[in-house]
Each structure stands twice: as structure tokens, then as C-alpha cells.
Design a protein that fits this description.
Elements: H1 3-28, E1 31-35, H2 42-57, E2 61-66, E3 83-85, E4 95-99, E5 117-121, E6 132-135, H3 142-152, H4 159-172, H5 183-194, H6 199-207, H7 212-224, E7 226-228, E8 233-238, H8 240-245, E9 268-274, E10 280-286, H9 292-298, E11 302-303, E12 307-312, H10 316-336
Parallel strand pairs: 1-2, 1-4, 2-3, 4-5, 5-6, 8-9
Antiparallel strand pairs: 7-8, 9-10, 10-12, 11-12
Bound molecules: adenosine monophosphate and manganese (II) ion (MN).
The site of manganese (II) ion has 6 residues, from loops.
Amino acid sequence: MTDTMTNRRTAVRASHEILERICEEILRRQRFLLTSHARPDGDSIGSQMAMAYALDTLGKQVRIVNADSAPDHYRAFPGLDRIEIAPHAAGEADAVIVMECSDLSRTGVTGFDGRYIINIDHHAGNRMYGALNWFDESAAACGEMVFELIRALGVPLSLEIATHIYLAILTDTGSFHHSNITPRTFDICRQTVEAGVNPAAMARRVFDSNSFGKLKLIGALLDAMELTDDGRLAVMYMDEAMLTSCGCTHNDTEGVINLPLTAREIQAVVFFKVGAAGDVRVSMRSKYDVDVRMVASAFGGGGHKNAAGFTVTGRLDDVRPVIIERIVAAIAQGLETRPERD
Ligand code: AMP
Ligand code: MN
């Protein structure tokens, strides 16, 4: 047996053990607090909501506390009115289930320290901050892990649960574009479709629900976009003035970063988003083996090979050339293993 096979088997066995431990602890506890990262995306919403419905089925008490509300087009998904938006999680609970967070501070919510935490995540570099830590970098979405947990708990796949699991996977794979998709991804999706999920309707609800303002914003952002590295890197920039002039909010920027990648030549995109307080969030996306997570890690952030991000601490003008230089290097490295044809 090769070393890789041995490692894989050890990892699979370890993941079964932790899954069993998590099931035991969930079944013997009653009151749960669920949370995920600030500025939630489809995976954080889908994972939390699927978990909440599963815990309901088991007769548990469930509260969900998030730092920020979900993007508008997710509001119509089942149960989202249950999410409490608060900077601090008060109240009694027997366990906190944190999904999609490599670090507890990613929640943007205080009040979890010292509680019994179950950490479920797929981001490389997870800090293992829980009493129980289930970390699986091979999961295309945290929703894949939540699906496994729900099945291990013996909870049937209701339409609500299936919808949220599909939402998590659809969005976190960049609508089935990223290179972290495995047979397991489709096996789970197949089961959600069997449970009643309509993939066409889901794609329309998630990706075709833009406001006219957002279309205007997309136009403005693409118009201002710059190309570097012989057209292989797209650089996008947005500030409050651009948002306001299109009647948009930060939530309207979701998914915009993927558009430049539809150009065949473009291998990576970096998107600088300047907030009202002058804070700068940097999002990156890439194709195939171009590893933008390594770039994010160098600046204190994280994510995945094809989707990563971080927050700029200093002045943007000072760090911008360094960020671009690193991405250009990542593109060169990623392309070494692949002829630049698509
Ligand atoms: P975004 O560009 O914000 O959609 O983020 C892309 C991916 O990078 C997601 O998986 C995020 O969880 C991750 N990410 C973004 N910002 C950070 C950060 N500051 N620290 C760790 N991971 C991050
Ligand atoms: Mn995720």
C-alpha cells in the first residue's frame, strides 16, 4: 500500500471516529447555539439551516446567531427568519456548533469562548478551537460534512434539509466550477434531488436574482477592471461611492468576482472592496491549480485553492503591488502543470 493510501485510510477512520463522537454529544445534549462566519455565504447559511432542521427533528432546542444578515436572495429560503443577528451570543446552551469557521473570531460574534464547542469546517488551517473538532479539507462545502452528520444522526432528508445542503454545495463549488468537487459531491446532490430539490429552480434563485442596480454595478466594475500579467490576472476595485451610485449594498457584490473568470485567458481575479470605515476586504478566485489560498495565508487570511480572501490591515496602496506580485507568481506556478489552453 502506498503512503498516500495509508494516510487516506487513517484520515477516513479518524473522520468516522470524530463523527461518532459528535453524534453522541449531540444526542445527549438539549440546547444548541448554531453559528457561522460573518458576511454569510451560501455554504454558511445552508450548513447552519440544514443543521437547525435536523436538530428540530431530534426534538432539540435551537438558536442561530450570526453577525450579519444573509444576502437578500437567500431570504426566501426556508427558515431564514430564525437567524438572530447580534454581535454577542447571550443565553444558556449545552453546546455551540460552529460551521465554516477556521477560527472562532471568523464568526464576528462574541460570547462563545468557554462554552462546549463543536467545530465543523473544511478550510485548510483550521485552528481546532472546539472541544470536538471535525475538519475535512476534502469536502467541497461544509454542507457536505453537515449532510454526513445529519445522516449519521439518523435524521431523514426532508425537503428543507435537502434544499439547504444543495444551496451550500451549489454556491461553495462556484456552481460546480471549483477543483474540489468529488464523486461524493454529486452523490450528495443526487440524494437531495431525490428528496425533491429542483436544480434548475435553485440555480435561478441563487444566480438569476439580481436587481437592476446590481447589473449596473457589474457594468461599472467590469468597466473599471484592469488586466495585468499579460491578461491572465483581472484586478477589480470597488468603494462605497460606486455602490451608492448604483443603489447597491455590499451584499450585491456576491458572485461578481466570478465573472472575469468567464474570459478564457483570465486565470485569476482579485477584488478589492473598500468599506465605509476604509477597511479593505480582498477576495480572490482562480482556475484549476492556481492556488490563491497560499496568497491569502501570506496576508493572514485563508480559504481554498480556487477561492480565498483576507482583510488588509495597512494602507491598500502599500500592499496592493505585493498582493498582485504574489498572485502573478501563483498563476505562473499553477500553469506549470497545465498547458494554457482554457
Ligand atoms: P470570499 O472571497 O469572501 O467569498 O471568501 C472566499 C473564501 O475565502 C471563503 O471560503 C472564505 O471563508 C475564505 N476567507 C475569506 N476571508 C478570509 C479571512 N479573512 N480569513 C480566512 N478565510 C477567509
Ligand atoms: Mn465553505
